[in-house]
Amino acid sequence: MQNIKAICLDLDDTLWDLAPVLQRAERVLHEWLAERYPRITARFSIADLRALRRAVEADFPGREHDLPLLRTATLARAAREAGYDELLAEEAFAVFQRARNAVQPFPDVHSGLERLARRAPLLALTNGTADLATIGLGRHFTAVVSAVEIGAAKPDARAFDAACRRAGLPAAAVAHAGDHPRNDVDAARAAGLVAVWVDRGLHEWPAALTPPEHTVADLHELAELLGG
């Protein structure tokens, strides 16, 4: 692993458990809407808003990666259908986003990132909308490459190409580590990066995919694998 000159990390479900964060953010948003715009929550439950978002995606072909756009458009439609001004969607999305960034990193993350950052520059490559500065992890990273920024989401090869360009390195000199078998591991190795599966027990490895060459349980094992 001595040829590795930069380390690329997924965020959601690699550095924290995302599902409870999203569930809480949806509850916080729904409660906020109920207090200020009660006709929305009278018409739309949390499950209804999820279904509405899936319907809204059809209005934005090719923009499936742009989660802020889709969430804001969903809230705007909900407002319109409930008889409110669509402009409330921006404020509502900000409420959701604040709660979405209230994450609890896995126990190994703070110290593990410190070890990894001493080994090589760290980049984040994410399909999500986490704000590392707000979360308190931004100091460990030299760059964040997001699906919204580059117009493509993992497993699209363009996401990994963008990360390598940001690092200023060829793919073979970059290690990418993440939790998702297809989006992080299979796609990264197909793009020429050294791929590492961070197995937090959240996913079964699909039988249809070639097994990972490298598997770790946490960031300290990743640091040991990479020689940090």
Word description of this protein:
The protein is of the alpha/beta class and 228 residues long. It has 2 domains: 6-16 and 104-226, Rossmann fold, CATH 3.40.50.1000; 19-100, Four Helix Bundle (Hemerythrin (Met), subunit A). 49% of the residues lie in helices and 11% in strands. It has 11 helices and 6 strands. It has helices at residues 18-36, 38-43, 46-56, 67-81, 88-100, 109-119, 132-135, 147-150, 157-167, 181-190, 219-226; strands at residues 6-9, 122-126, 143-146, 174-178, 194-198, 215-216. It has a 6-stranded parallel beta sheet. Helix 10 (181-190) links the parallel strand 4 (174-178) and strand 5 (194-198). It is elongated, with a radius of gyration of 19 Å. The termini are close together. The model has no long low-confidence stretch (mean pLDDT 97).
Notable characteristics:
6 strands, 2 domains, Rossmann fold, elongated, 228 residues, alpha/beta, Four Helix Bundle (Hemerythrin (Met), subunit A), 6-stranded parallel β-sheet, 11 helices
Short account of what is shown:
This protein is α/β, with parallel strands linked by helices. The chain has 2 domains: 6-16 and 104-226, HAD superfamily/HAD-like (Rossmann fold, 3-Layer(aba) Sandwich), CATH 3.40.50.1000; 19-100, Four Helix Bundle (Hemerythrin (Met), subunit A), CATH 1.20.120.1600. The chain contains 11 helices and 6 strands.
